[in-house]
């Protein structure tokens, strides 16, 4: 009985370690109806294709081959699907939501790999410039939070292939 209780107590720890070591990082994914990254028209098309949230969208847009198939099947532009892939990629970072994804991309951080190579102080400066004049400017993370997100991104394996050119 004692061993069984001990094993049950360790089960959550084993699960957490397994998730951390896989590097998949599905921290902050959303149903399309809860975010503005995907337009309503895109939501309808993607839902008809069986894709209902950002985790599923990342799965279908991370590889060049699957993104091309999805573009052909749905009529959505390959480049737009690439942009959505990079946005969903950033949502893998624990604590990063859709508004922060948009701010990151305006500041030149397109993927978790870009984030992993950033310096917190320099990134904060870029975010401040990118969000000047917006309400997000007053809700930017601290350098410490950016440092935590950067460390998290360093442990994620790259997923998105064949990125579209930066805007």
Short characterization:
This protein has 167 residues and is an all-alpha fold. It has one domain (26-154).
What is the overall silhouette?
A: globular
Q: How many E-type strands?
A: 0
The DSSP helix count reads 9
Stretches with pLDDT under 50, minimum 5 residues: 3-26
Structural class: mainly alpha
- Compute the number of structural domains: 1
Binned strand content:
under 5%
Q: Alpha-carbon distance between the termini?
A: 61 Å
Major pleated sheet: none
Order of helices and strands: HHHHHHHHH
Average of per-residue pLDDT values: 84
User: What is the alpha-carbon Rg in Å?
Assistant: 18 Å
> Helix share of residues?
55-70%
Describe the overall structure.
The protein is mainly α and 167 residues long. It contains nine helices and no strands. The chain has one domain (26-154).
Give the SSE layout:
Elements: H1 2-22, H2 40-48, H3 54-61, H4 64-74, H5 78-90, H6 98-106, H7 112-116, H8 120-130, H9 143-154
Helix pairs in contact: 3-5, 8-9
List keywords for this structure.
single chain, 167 residues, mainly alpha, 9 helices, 0% strand, globular
């Amino acid at each position: 009985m004692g061993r069984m209780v001990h094993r049950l107590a360790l089960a959550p720890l084993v699960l957490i370690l397994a998730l951390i070591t896989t590097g998949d990082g599905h921290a902050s994914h959303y149903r399309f109806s809860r975010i503005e990254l995907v337009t309503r028209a895109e939501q309808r098309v993607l839902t008809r294709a069986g894709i209902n949230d950002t985790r599923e969208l990342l799965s279908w847009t991370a590889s060049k081959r699957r993104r091309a198939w999805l573009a052909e099947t749905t009529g959505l532009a390959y480049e737009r699907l690439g942009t959505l892939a990079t946005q969903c990629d950033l949502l893998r970072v624990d604590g990063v939501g859709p508004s922060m994804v948009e701010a990151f991309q305006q500041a030149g951080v397109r993927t978790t790999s870009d984030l992993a190579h950033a310096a917190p102080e320099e990134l904060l400066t870029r975010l401040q410039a990118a969000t000047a004049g917006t309400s997000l400017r007053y809700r930017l993370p601290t350098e410490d939070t950016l440092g935590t997100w950067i460390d998290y991104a360093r442990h994620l394996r790259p997923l998105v292939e064949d990125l579209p050119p930066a805007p």
